[in-house]
Amino acid sequence: MIIRITALLLSVLFFLIFFVASSFSYKSRYQNKYSPKNMFPFEFNYNSRFIDNFYGNSAIILSVFAAIFYFSCFDISFTNGLIIASSIAGIVCFIMIGFLVFLPLKLYKFHFVLASIFFTSSLVLSGLVMTAGFRHYQVTNQGVGFFTFVFGVILTLATFVILMNPKLTKPIKYEQKALEDGNTINVRPKTIPLAFSEWLLIIISFLNLINMFILYSSM
User: Does 176 score more than 60 pLDDT?
Assistant: First the structure.
């Protein structure tokens, strides 16, 4: 129990450090504020070296490893196959998060393949934890099982709605802005559905991490 909760807390903590440190690094390098609504996770490292965002990059690697270790700590001899399947889906999901932070969109084929795997594993993880919570509530009639089931339903529906957004596959259209000197520049839209969806599903993945911990702790 102590090992799992430590891994969980470290994973969440390192992720927060990653986002804060990377945001400061991005603003320092490009004199522009980072926005998850229209910027991809990999843009923290756009045209830069690992060392340019050393603290942020190190933190996301540690966060992913802590999450993988967390899922690996579940007892594989446990008879609940849903928990084992959830652990496998969780490991795949967080490995993909790590790749999405470092794989640029210019490698669009690999990016979309890995993003698709991430989206799928995120949905599977949400669904499995939700189902495990329901099964646990059926057997024990405990409030914890009901809570994790309801929380799982919310996360699963949220993931499904995000993935069903038809704008995910649409190309990114930049807007042209006229300058005072008569020239024009391309300005990215205020929201890029694919980029924002990646961030939303990363957050949902961490919420699944917490929901799974609550469920397993009551078993």
Answer: yes
- Beta-carbon count within 10 A of 86 CB: 28
Q: Express each pLDDT in 49-84 by its tens digit.
A: 889 999 999 999 999 999 999 988 876 554 467 788
CB of 34 closer than 8 Å to CB of 26: yes
DSSP labels for 53-95? GHHHHHHHHHHHHHHHHHHHTS-TT-S-HHHHHHHHHHHHHHH
Higher model confidence: residue 77 or residue 184? 184
Supply the pLDDT for residue 76.
Answer: 54
In angstroms and rounded to an integer, the radius of gyration of the C-alpha atoms of the chain is 19
Q: Which SS3 state, helix, strand or coil, does residue 178 take?
A: strand
Q: In this structure, are residues 61 and 98 in contact, taking their beta carbons and an 8 Å threshold? A: yes
CB 205 within 8 A of CB 122: yes
CB atoms within 10 A of CB 133: 26
- What average pLDDT does this structure show over 90-117? 88
Q: Name residue, tokens 């949220």.
A: 158
Residue 168 near residue 194, CB atoms below 8 Å = yes
Residue 128 has pLDDT above 60, yes or no: yes
- Please state, in angstroms and rounded to a whole number, the distance separating the CA atoms of residues 143 and 151: 12
Look up residue 180 and give its DSSP letter: T
Residue with tokens 């469920």: 215
Per-residue pLDDT band at 97 (split at 50, 70, 90): very high
Q: Which amino acid is at 212?
A: M
